[in-house]
Amino acid sequence: MGAYLVRRSFLMVLTLFGMSVLIFVMLRLVPGNITDIIFDSAGFVNEKQKKKIEQQLGLDKPIVTQYANWIAGLAKGDLGYAYVSEKPAIDEILPRIPVTAKLAVLALVFSVLFGVPLGVISAVRQNTALDYCLRVVSLSGLSLPSFWLGLLILMAFVQWFGWIPIYQSDPGSLWKEIALLSIPAAAVGFRSSALLMRLTRSSMLEVLRQDYIRTARAKGASDQVVNYDHGLRNAMLPVVTIIGVEAAFLIGGLIVTETVFNIPGVARFLVEAIRWRDYPIVQNLVMFIAIVVVVVNFLVDMTYAMLDPRIRYES
Amino acid sequence: MAALDHAAELEKAGANVSSRFGAMLFLARSYPLGAIGAVIMVGFLATALFAGAIASFDPFTINARDSLAPPGGAHMLGADFMGRDVFARIVYGARISLAVALGATLLGSLFGVSVGLMSGFIGGWFDLLVQRLIDIMQSLPLLVMALVMAASLGPSLTNTIIAIAIPLVPSVARVIRSNTLSLREMPYVEAARAVGMSELRIAVSHVLPNTLAPLIVLATAQLGSAILVESALSFLGLGVPEPHPSWGRMLSESAAEYVRTAPWLVIFPGIAISAVVFGTNLLGDAIRDMLDPRQRC
User: Fold this and answer.
1) CATH topology of domain A96-275
2) Which one of A100, A220, A276, B27 has the fewest CB atoms closer than 10 angstroms to its CB?
3) A173 three-state secondary structure
4) Residue B85: strand pairing partners
5) pLDDT tens digits, residue range A210-248?
C-alpha cells in the first residue's frame, strides 16, 4: 500500500505538471494577446504603448521564461496579476470559490437524494410501467442541456411568480442563500441525478442477479431485506465512485448555470477570463480545476479500497 | 462481437428475415425505445439534408419589421431580434449540429482508435507516454477542455469541431487500448503470428475489426455529448460564430432577457437540442444492448 501511495502521488504530480505545460502552451497558441484586445476596443494601435504594456505584463519574454516565472510564483503561492482588473489573481479567484463550492455541494446533494432512491426503485420494479417512466425521465435528464433547463426554470418563475431568483452577494442568512442557490443547483444536479439513477439501476440489477441474492431469497428473507440489506449495500460501490467523479466534473454544468443565473462564481469567471485572454486567471483556474479532479479521483480510489476489502492496490 | 452476425439469431428468435424490412420491424419490436430513437435520428438527418425544402424562409435574411414577431402568423415559431425566422434557423441549425456531432465524433474516434491500437500493440515507452497523456487530458471535464481548446483555436465551425473532437480522444483510446491488450492474447492472433503475418497486418485485419463493437457503443454515446458541448460552447459565445444558425447560439442571443419578453426564442431551440440528444441516447442504449449483451438490463 505504501509503495502504491508513493507511485500514485508521483503520477498525480506528473499529470498536473503535464497539464500546466499543456494549458500554458495552448493559451499562447492564440494569435494576439490582451494588448490586441485593448487596442482593438480602442480602435487604434499605438505601437510604443503596446510594447510598454507587453513589457509590464512580461509578455515580451520568451515563452519558457514566462512559464518558469509562473511555476516559480505558484510554488510561492503567488499567482501573478489579473490583466483585466490588475489585482493579484489570487484575490480575484479565492473570493469566488465559496459560491461555486456551495452550488456544487447542493447540486450533489440534490442528485444523490433523487438519483439513488429512484434508481433503486427502477431496478426493483424492473420492466414495469414505473421503471419505463423513470428510465425515460433519466434519459431526458441526460439530454437536456443544463443551461436550457436553467432558462426554463427562470421562465417558469417569471410566468408563475412574476420574479426571477437573482443571486444577491449578501443574501442575509445562510438559509436564505441556500434557498436562492437551490434553484440553480437543481438545474445542474438534474443531469447528475439522471446519471446516478441509471448507474444505480444497472448496478442494482447486476447485484440482484448474483447467487447470494438467490440464496437469500431461498432462505426466506423478505423482499425488503433482500433488496436493501443484501442488494443495495453491494450495489453502492460503483455508485460511490460515480458520485466522486461527478463531484469533480460538475464544474462543466456549473459554467453554464452560473452564466444563466448570473452567479458570481469561479466557473463563470473562467469563461469571462477566457474571453478576455486573461492568461493569469485562466491558467490558474484551469490548474485549480485539474487539481480538484485529480485529488478527487485519488480519494475515490481510496474510498473504493476501504469499502471493498477485496480490492488491494499493489504497485 | 457475435452479435454482429444478426441474421441467424433473428431467425432463431422467430423473425422474418427474408426481407430487410422484416428484420427491421423485428428489431424495432425488440427495442421499442431504440426504434423511437432511430426515428428521431432519421428525422434529424432528413431535416439537415433537406433544410432548403422544409423551411420557407431564409435563415439569414434580416428583416427589421419582423423583429421579435411572436409565433403564429407568417413566422410559425416567431422571429428573433433581427427578424430572422426561428423555424428556418432551427431547421438550418440541424446542419450545424449534424456537422459538429458527426465531425467531432469521427475525428475523435479516428485519433482515439489509432492511438489506442498503437499504444496496445507497440507497448513499452510509447504506451507509457500515451497513458500519461490520457491522464493529463482526462484531468479536465469535457466542457472545460473544449472551452480552452475553442478559445485557443479561435471561433469557426472547423475549429469548434476540432475543439470538441480532441477531448473525446482519451476515452476512445483507453477503450481501444484495453481491448487490444486482451485481443492480442487471443489464439487466433497467435496463429496469425505463427504463420508469419506482420504485426501491422494483425493489428489492422484481426484486432481492429474486433474492437468495433465497443467503439460503436462509445461513439453513439459521444454523438450526444458532442451536440451538448457544441450547444454549450455556442451558448457561451465561444463556439460556432455568427451568422451560422447554431442552436446553442440562438439561445445565447435570446437568453435571460428574452425569458420575459420573447419566450419562443428560448423554448424552441432548446427543444431541438434536447430532442436530438434524446434520440442519440435512446439509439445508443439500444445499440449497446444489441452489441454488448452482458450489460443488458
Assistant:
1) MetI-like fold (1.10.3720)
2) A220
3) coil
4) B79
5) 888 888 888 888 888 888 888 888 888 888 888 888 887
